[in-house]
Amino acid sequence: QVQLVESGGGLVQAGGSLRLSCAVSGVPFNSYGTGWFRQAPGKEREFVAAVSRSGSRTYYADSVKGRFTLSRDNAKNTVNLQMNSLKPEDTAVYYCAQSIGTSWNEIPAARPNQYAYWGQGTQVTVSS
């Protein structure tokens, strides 16, 4: 059974930091690239960041570039999203997901339909 479990969300003031983690089980972890998406109330799910299966390549949405850092640990089957300089507009439910059909150093796509497995999400709230 595939499980992706996000953790680390919470309430933080603007300018603060949070570190989200995604623990993956039930699938060969390094067979999939991983992405993070977020969804704010009344808005569509949007791409945040993605990392290749190897962990050596990352890609970020313009809105988070320079503030968020994505890393993966293939030995621990986890992916971490370090979020710094948080803004109120970063408030959303954050989801991690495993992509399909990517090669070892290929960055997963930014489209949700390219991801086969999803976690339940973790709430991030940034107060002004």
Helices, strands, pairings?
Blueprint: E1 3-7, E2 10-13, E3 18-25, E4 34-39, E5 46-51, E6 58-60, E7 68-73, E8 78-83, E9 92-99, E10 115-118, E11 122-127
Short descriptors:
seven-stranded mixed beta sheet; mainly beta; globular; 128 residues; four-stranded antiparallel beta sheet; 0% helix
Descriptive report:
The chain is mostly beta strands and 128 residues long. Helix content is 0%, strand content 48%. The protein contains no helices and eleven strands. The protein has strands at 3-7, 10-13, 18-25, 34-39, 46-51, 58-60, 68-73, 78-83, 92-99, 115-118, 122-127. The radius of gyration is 13 Å and the shape is globular. The N and C termini lie far apart (40 Å).
In brief:
The protein is mostly beta strands.
Inertia-based shape: globular
Please tally the helical runs, counting DSSP H or I stretches of 4 or more residues: 0
Q: Which structural category fits the helices and strands?
A: mainly beta
Mean pLDDT: 95
Would you identify the regions where 5 or more consecutive residues have pLDDT less than 50? none
Largest sheet: 7 strands, mixed
Portion in beta strands: over 45%
What's the β-strand tally?
Answer: 11
Question: SSE order, as H and E?
Answer: EEEEEEEEEEE
Q: Span from first to last CA?
A: 40 Å
Estimated helix fraction? under 10%
Q: Could you tell me the radius of gyration in angstroms?
A: 13 Å
